[in-house]
Every structure is written in structure tokens, then in C-alpha cells.
Amino acid sequence: MGDGKPCILFRARRIALRYQNSSLLDLTQRAFSPDHPVDTRGSICSKDKAQLQMSSKFYESAGQSWFSLDRVSLHYNWSKEAHFNATEVYAPATSSYHCQHVSNVPRYSPLLVASGNTDPARLWSLTFTDFQLQAFNVFSGKFSSPADCATFLTPAVLMGLISSLILLLVLAYALHMVVHLRHVEHYDHKTTVYFPRAPETDASPADKNSP
Questions:
Q1: C-alpha angle 127/129/133, rounded to 5°?
Q2: Which of 19, 37, 74, 182 has its CA 20 to 30 A from that of 167?
Q3: Are 18 and 25 in contact (CB under 8 A)?
Q4: d(Cα 61, Cα 8) in Å, to the nearest integer?
Q5: What would the pLDDT profile of 115-161 be if each residue is shown by its tens digit?
Q6: What is the DSSP annotation of the chain?
Q7: Are 54 and 68 in contact (CB under 8 A)?
Q8: What's the predicted TM-score (pTM) here?
Q9: pLDDT 10s digits, 46-104
Q10: What residues contact residue 4 under an 8 Å CB cut-off, 6+ apart?
Q11: CA–CA dist 29, 43 (Å, integer)
């Protein structure tokens, strides 16, 4: 809260956490259930800074302000911390940010990355499902229109494009062969040459004088 007004909106359909090969821990109810209110006393909300290392920046080329999620910190065992860099999570300040998966798990195209080779974050798997976030320009306590992280060239779309390209190449080759065969058929015709017989010559003079 800032001046009695919310400056950060955050939601996720699921929050899943795993330490190395241990069982998956679902934190959704603990984070969003009315029976387990989240302690926000340590939150910071100012003009250009908010908890979770969020910052507001102005990019001249874009001509507008953007907000970004710089880091996600995981506190465990009372005194230990794991830090994930999240610099790829950003959106225009007039929009919210939405992504189906914000995670450090490889199969989700990781947007969370351990802050260092020795950071304990490398031992954790953290996944936010149906993640949405907005900062600094919150009006009426509602999310603005989302800027989605989904890219056009997802693995499924990429495989579909490759398959389509292969089929187009096969079709183009087949059409080329059909046109080539017609071209050969058009020019490969038989030519018949007629040689007229020489006219029969008159009988020799000796034959004419014979009785």
C-alpha cells in the first residue's frame, strides 16, 4: 500500500515449490487463502520502488514507462535466502504483465534464473502458474489490460511451421516433376520422314530393238 492505495497487484492460480528431489509443495492456499493472510508489513511501496525489487523505468525509444520484476527472493529455514533474477518479466506501466508460467523449470522457458552459481536458488524449483502482476499504476484495485509473455514461436508452433514447410517443399517438388513431364511429352514426338521412290526409267535401247 502507498498513501492508503494499492500500488502492486499480484495473483497466480498456483504456486509450486520443490527442493531438489523432494516432494512438490503447493503454496497456493497459504499465499491466497483468506484463512492464511500474507504478512505484508515488510513491503515497500513508493514512487519508483516496491517489494520484490520492482522498479519503474522510462525507455526513450518506447516513449513510455515500463515496470520490471528484478528479483524474487525465497526465505526458508528462518534465516536462509535464495534469490532468482527475473529481469525478463516486464510490461508497460499502463498495462499488467501476464504469463502462463513464470518459473525456473527448464520445460517452461525459464524466466527465473538463480542470481549466481553458488546461490541456493539452484537447488529450488519455483513455478507460478497463470501469473499476473501490475505495479505503480493501479486504479480501482483492478488489473489493466495484460501484456502477455507468450511468444509466437512456441515449441508447438515451431514444430507446426517446420512440418508445414516440409509439406510445401514436397508439394513444390511434385508440381515441378509434373510440369517437367508435360514439357518432355510436348517435345518428345516422333518425326516421320518420307522418301519418295525414284520414278522407273525407260527400257534400254537394246531392249527396244529386240524382237
A1: 100
A2: 182
A3: yes
A4: 25
A5: 888 888 899 999 999 999 887 777 777 888 888 886 544 556 667 78
A6: -BTTB--EEEE-SEEEEEETTS--EE-HHHHH-TTS----TT--B-SSEETTTEEEEEETTTTEEEEEEEEEEEEETTTEEEEEEEEEEEEETTSEEEEEEEES-GGG--S-EESSTT-GGGGEEEEEEEEEEEES--BTTB--SEEE---S--HHHHHHHHHHHHHHHHHHHHHHHHHHHHHHHHH--------PPPPPPPPPHHHHH--
A7: yes
A8: 0.59
A9: 666 555 444 455 555 456 677 888 888 888 887 888 889 887 888 888 888 999 999 99
A10: none
A11: 20
Other Cβ atoms closer than 10 A to 93: 17
Cell numbers describing residue 143 = 488489473
Q: Which of 192, 79, 164, 76 is nearest to 126 (CA)?
A: 76
Q: At 147, phi and psi to the nearest 5?
A: -100, 110
Angstrom distance (rounded) from CA 31 to CA 37: 7
68: Cβ contacts below 8 Å, ≥ 6 apart: 54, 55, 57, 87, 89, 90
Q: Which cell is 210 given?
A: 529386240
d(CA 78, CA 104): 23
Q: In this structure, are strands 146-148 and 96-103 parallel, antiparallel, or unpaired? A: parallel
Which residues, 6+ apart, have CB-to-CB distance to 119 below 8 Å? 82, 83
**Centroid of chain to Cα 37:** 35
